[in-house]
Amino acid sequence: MEESAVDFFLRYFRNDLEYFVIASSVHANSDEVGHYGDAEDDQRDSDLIKGLVRSGLVKEFSYKKRFGRDPSSQKYNESVEKEWGDITLMKGDDFSIVHIRSLLVAKMVVYGLYGHCFIMSPDWNLAFYPHDDFGFGVIGLGDNANVKVAHDFLAEADQLPGMHSIIRMPSKS
Fold first, then answer.
1. Mind giving me the DSSP string for 9-22?
2. In the β-sheet with 88-91, what is the strand arrangement from edge to edge?
3. pLDDT tens, position by position, 132-153
């Protein structure tokens, strides 16, 4: 399902991807990646992360080494929150489509991958984001967001087997 959703997204926007910007704070906790417990999933996760770290799309580090060993401490929580908020902007065409695909799939499936990931279109004032389970959300960025592009994308995604789109428009006040 996740790969189908990502492949649909990449096909749907294939002519526009070079104009997209990636806004990401995605990082891998090396204490968790590859330690979910299912050998096949763990190998897939490790392979995805290695490729993404090499490409520069994802950072990898140990939460225990960086933030300490007490996840209930205020310092630990503040450090994790800061890492999630450290968003880097990257031009979409600086990366191969294979790496962008891997990032989007990984964001949906990899245990131990954290942070935010938005694929933004400055021309349309839209931000697309992979859900942690599968599929995409779309956020309008400001009053002149191209709602038609967002609506058409979600409506077409709704036609895919096993997919369902929920479209909420802002209420007019």
1. HHHHTTTTGGG-EE
2. 88-91, 21-24, 117-121, 126-130, 136-140
3. 767 899 999 999 999 999 999 9
Which two three-digit tokens encode residue 69?
A: 């060993």
Helices 2-12 & 97-109, crossing angle to 10 degrees?
140
Distances (CA, A) of 90 to 42, 84, 138, 140, 166: 28, 16, 19, 19, 29
For 6, residues 6+ apart whose C-beta sits below 8 A from its C-beta are 101, 104, 105, 108, 130
> Which parts of 15-171 are beta strand (E)?
21-24, 27-29, 59-61, 88-91, 113-114, 117-121, 126-130, 136-140
Give residues with Cβ within 8 angstroms of 93, minimum separation 6: 17, 18, 19
pLDDT tens digits, 69-85:
788 888 888 888 898 88
| Lookup: tokens for 129 | 């984001």
Q: Average pLDDT over the chain, rounded to whole?
A: 89
